[in-house]
Design brief:
This protein has 224 residues and is mainly α. It is built from twelve helices and no strands. The chain has helices spanning 4-7, 19-31, 37-50, 54-63, 67-79, 93-106, 110-123, 129-141, 145-157, 163-179, 183-196, 203-212. The protein is globular.
Length: 224
Amino acid sequence: MPNLENVKEKLCPWDKVPEAQAQLAVDGYVRAGALLTRHFFEIMPVFESSGEGIKIAYPNMIKAIEMDRIQGAFQASQKAPLVSTTPPPEPGDVEKSLRKAEVSLARNDLQKAKELYQSVLKEHDPDNGPAWYGLGMIAGLENDRQSARDFFQKALQSPSSENSTKVWAHIYLARLHDIEGDREEALAEYQSAIRIGDNTRNAQDVAQKGLQEPFRMKKKTGSP
């Protein structure tokens, strides 16, 4: 499955809040002393779209640290508005299950993640977009391309899918078509992602790259 085996894309917590609110939260962390927060916040989309493993990318992330920028970010954070300290509402059963599924997926516990996503669909919301999207990622990791296509399509049709979910569902569908040599269908999916306009995890650059050249799966390290 395109890039999932390396990056294991998941619904990032930053997807859940507007960009302006995320920026204020980053300023808050920097203001509190976590000085490298903004550096990693800005560089993570590059890593997530690259397909490199974290062991390869992390040393380069460290080398890219510029102390002048770190100092500037700290000074800017002192002037930024304070983020409200009002605790967020307690998540419901669906959100709790989705979060647990994301954690299981990140840990490569595909069976547990699959069970949690399926429980959301069976017990709470049969049209839940994030659950269908998660099942699509798992199917991709298991090299079940037909199921992955079906699940991503259901995620696109779900009224609960946010644009951050839809844009990546289109990208993954495009990559599946590229892998199978169906360039015309792949181009249509990349164009759909661009029309959505959402740039979560650098999605627009990834889609533009997909228009320029077909996606090809990277060989695993040590493979022939």
